[in-house]
Amino acid sequence: MSEARTARTPVDTSKIAGWGVDADPENDPTYPYRDRSRDHGLSTDWQRPTQQRSDVEVLQSIEYKHFPAVYGTTVPPRGVSGAIRRAAFRWSESHWLHWLMLMGADRVNVVEGLVEDLARGKVPNVPAEMGARAEWEHNRQGFLTKAAVFAGVSAGVVLLFRRSKG
Amino acid sequence: MLAMDYRGPYRVRLEEKPMPRIEHPQDAIVRVTRSCICGSDLHLYHGMVPDTRVGSTFGHEFTGVVEELGPEVSNLQVGDHVLVPFNIACGQCHFCKQSLFGNCHEVNPHATAVGGIYGYSHTAGGYQGGQAEYVRVPYADVGPMVFPDWMDPDDAVLLTDVVPTGYQAAEMGGIQKGDTVVVFGAGPVGIMAARCAWLFGAGRVIVIDHFDYRLEFVKAYAPAEVYNFKELDDVVTFLKHTTDGLGADVVIDAVGGDAKGNALHTLFGNKLKLEAGSAIALHWAINSAKKGGIVSIVGVYGPTGNMVPIGNVLNKGLTIRANQASVARLLPRLIEHVRAGHIDPKALITHRVPLEDVADAYHIFAAKLDGCIKPVLVPGGA
Ligand SMILES: NC(=O)c1ccc[n+]([C@@H]2O[C@H](COP(=O)([O-])OP(=O)(O)OC[C@H]3O[C@@H](n4cnc5c(N)ncnc54)[C@H](O)[C@@H]3O)[C@@H](O)[C@H]2O)c1
Ligand SMILES: [Zn+2]
Ligand SMILES: [Zn+2]
């Protein structure tokens, strides 16, 4: 630690009366989970790892000054949800809008997932995805209640649909 | 290869996915042998973490065998059986140099505030998770650790997150000998935090939850005094009264954004998503701490904001400490504790589920069915 950690400042600290007289290395609320002894005054420059390269679209927080060396390349932004995600990254992490748009995109993405499944000719087995078998085995009462609610709602929808047609 | 696939809130299934590839010279490819489901995965499963994309594979607690190595990896060999810390970390940035491996600055383009975590949404870097047959492991010289021969893989897989997180929760509490420690949450993390509080010299350990089966477990395992908050009129007043009217020296939040117990927080935090999760456990933690005391947060919340009584933090002069656990920093010490019999990680595993049944495993763990404490997924070939 020591001098090397001192922030860059246009002020000459040697001219400030009493500079550092109460500095107390014991007063470290981050002990022991931040180990500054390993931070040999390296301040904010470090030897960057090799930069990962890929063709996958990766969105970046505008708060970064550099692009992190390594990143995940799963599920790049696509479709309407992707467009919303791209737009969200115009705002910093400090903006609620950034996160609210991402949450909105997540909801849109669920619909896109359903459409994709159907387009592949696959009807998703939603009860199985939600663990219906486990519910049946370990929470029969819950299973029956949910099944009853589901049946009721479906019957209601069918009725409404018939009415509006008739 | 087969991998867990997220389809939307409460919906997951198994899918055939492309094999992961070496994408960076410091990558490894690992064949997964065990992979747990964590309370953190439930925040994803409930749709609470922004930028959780449909088609993602979750899973940040896994062990596996090294199958392939990038040209810059020198500490591992093909065939090594490794445990992989849940934090992805470069080992050389400003933060890694201070052992803050959960706060690496070279792993996550999507957010500066969040480090890199396997299978934990794009907000944590967009990495594939380990609830799969194979997984890409970046910075393979930094995180993965060949675990000792004598160690059971079931212990090893819990060293990737649960044990270090519980331990760091206690460590951040700055527990002094004789301190009264209250732990909110009797999930795997809270159970481990209660166990570790003794290692730091706690004089009294109290655990709060609303599932009796979990409270029974931790009562014997930690051991600890346990109370069901549903059976108390007011958990904060109860805790004050049982600590000479002063409150606890150290309070640990091992619950996070899926906390139950307050309708307003459930509505705002979980249903409407206007808060970054329900913060009622943290609210209780702040209010039941002694003046001048310490609140240690390991329960996870989203990136927006939560309603918490920050005025009480001020008036009571509390110190708040929080972080993602820095797994690689703690591993050497924790391995000693396992060897010495101070910690028995695998005792937490209640369910061993084939990867194919991932949807049922999620439901059982999320709904706390069948006495579930910790489920581990085992891929077919493992
Ligand atoms: N900081 C980290 O590095 C880190 C690592 C792992 C997990 N976590 C977080 O730790 C938390 C717990 O994880 P887990 O795997 O034990 O999850 P879990 O879901 O198994 O356990 C949470 C427990 O909290 C209980 N609970 C709910 N509301 C409560 C309340 N108001 N008061 C007291 N208890 C309450 C639940 O009944 C449950 O038993 C999660 O938020 C998870 O994301 C953090
Ligand atoms: Zn975890
Ligand atoms: Zn780093």
Automatic annotation (TrEMBL), chain A:
Segments of skewed composition (Polar residues): 44-53
Biased composition (Basic and acidic residues): 33-42
Keywords assigned by UniProt, alphabetized: Membrane, Transmembrane, Transmembrane helix
Transmembrane domains' residue ranges: 143-161
Start and end residues of each stretch annotated as Disordered: 1-53
Protein name from the UniProt record: Uncharacterized protein
Lineage: Bacteria, Pseudomonadati, Pseudomonadota, Alphaproteobacteria, Sphingomonadales
Automatic annotation (TrEMBL), chain B:
Keyword Oxidoreductase: yes
Any one Gene Ontology molecular-function term assigned to this protein's record: oxidoreductase activity
Upper lineage: Bacteria, Pseudomonadati, Pseudomonadota, Alphaproteobacteria, Sphingomonadales
Key word Oxidoreductase present: yes
Cofactors named for this entry: Zn(2+)
Entry keyword set: Metal-binding, Oxidoreductase, Zinc
Signal peptide segment: none
Protein name, entry field: Alcohol dehydrogenase catalytic domain-containing protein
Gene3D superfamilies associated with the record: Medium-chain alcohol dehydrogenases, catalytic domain, NAD(P)-binding Rossmann-like Domain
Location of the Alcohol dehydrogenase-like N-terminal domain: 25-144
Family: Belongs to the zinc-containing alcohol dehydrogenase family.
Domain Alcohol dehydrogenase-like C-terminal: 188-265
Annotated SUPFAM superfamilies: GroES-like, NAD(P)-binding Rossmann-fold domains
CDD domains reported for this sequence: FDH_like_1
